[in-house]
Amino acid sequence: MENNRLWWLRIPIAFFLILGLMEFFIDSGNKLAILEYPMAQAFMLFILLLIIAIELILAAIENVMFQTLSEEGKERYLAAKNEKWEWEWGKRTYSKLLGSKPMEAEGEIILDHNYDGIRELDNKLPPWWVYMFYASIIFGVAYMVRFHVFNDYDQVMEYEQEVAAAQLEIEEYKKTAKDMVDVNTVELLTDASDLSAGQAIFETNCVACHMADGGGGIGPNLTDANWILGGGIKNVFHTISEGGRDGKGMVAWKQNLKPLEMAQVASYVLTFEGTTPANPKEPQGDIWVDDNTGLQGAEGD
Ligand code: HEC
């Protein structure tokens, strides 16, 4: 018995329908949920197995029912099943769109020309082509009016809009990705919230050696223009992250502080410059001139 001919269509349709629904309901940002979450993959695998199981059960039931039929019933059932109802609709639309005459009716449209036995049929233009042609005319008129009469926007404007939108996205991204700073991307933070977070970190971890006002003790004075290991946000971030010269007492803080926290405390440290601490330690190192050469390096003198 030819069983459930359409299983190969039903399974993928059901599968992709559920996949589509899932993607619609799960918010996974720009990525597909099925790529993002292993759970989603497991779920879809389960769904696939379930659909296959349902198909198998249905086939089995049909088979059992079929066996219970009388011989005559079986014949009638098969006859009904074999009517290819599934494709009737598709076939009809297809031939409508094609608009061609069936072979038997070709006599009506044959032309008089006869080139050594080669005859010509006067077929109508196929409707699918004609409709597309009309659609392109409508599109063309709308396009011309919009862009050449009303000058809606041009390529340059489109480009600028997209760049502006992308710029906004970058800003958004930077806000959420603040924590991903490293020594190459770190920038001086100036938000009050960042600076007060930096102050809190400084007061918990650093005052023992640098004093609360940055005047210095075991560690150098952070309020003067002199830096042993280089000034500027990048050098200071680097010093905090990697530590000072061996044996001096300034450890690498990257084990204990997150990148964002190091950027915050580094920015806070830089607010000391020019203030007058209670007990300033004498300047050490060179006067830092920011000449944009970037990192001085932890081994600097
Ligand atoms: C155990 C004492 C100690 C603690 C705690 C400490 N530092 Fe230091 N720090 C030092 C010493 C000593 C140096 C000098 C290192 C050198 O000479 O190589 C230094 C150097 C620095 C420098 C470079 C100064 C320059 O002139 O180049 C910065 C910036 C700094 N510390 C920031 C911090 C921050 C921020 C913290 C807290 C997260 C911290 N330190 C905690 C002892 C300490």
TrEMBL record:
Annotated stretches, region: Disordered: 276-301
Gene3D superfamilies assigned: 6.10.280.130, Cytochrome c-like domain
Molecular function per GO: electron transfer activity; heme binding; metal ion binding
Pfam families, alphabetized: Cytochrome_CBB3 (PF13442), FixP_N (PF14715)
The organism's place on the tree of life at top rank: Bacteria
Cytochrome c domain residues: 193-273
Residue stretches spanning the membrane: 6-26, 38-61, 128-145
Coiled coil segments of this chain: 156-183
Keywords: Coiled coil, Heme, Iron, Membrane, Metal-binding, Transmembrane, Transmembrane helix
UniProt-listed PANTHER family: CBB3-TYPE CYTOCHROME C OXIDASE SUBUNIT FIXP (PTHR33751)
Identification of the protein by name: Cytochrome c oxidase cbb3-type subunit 3
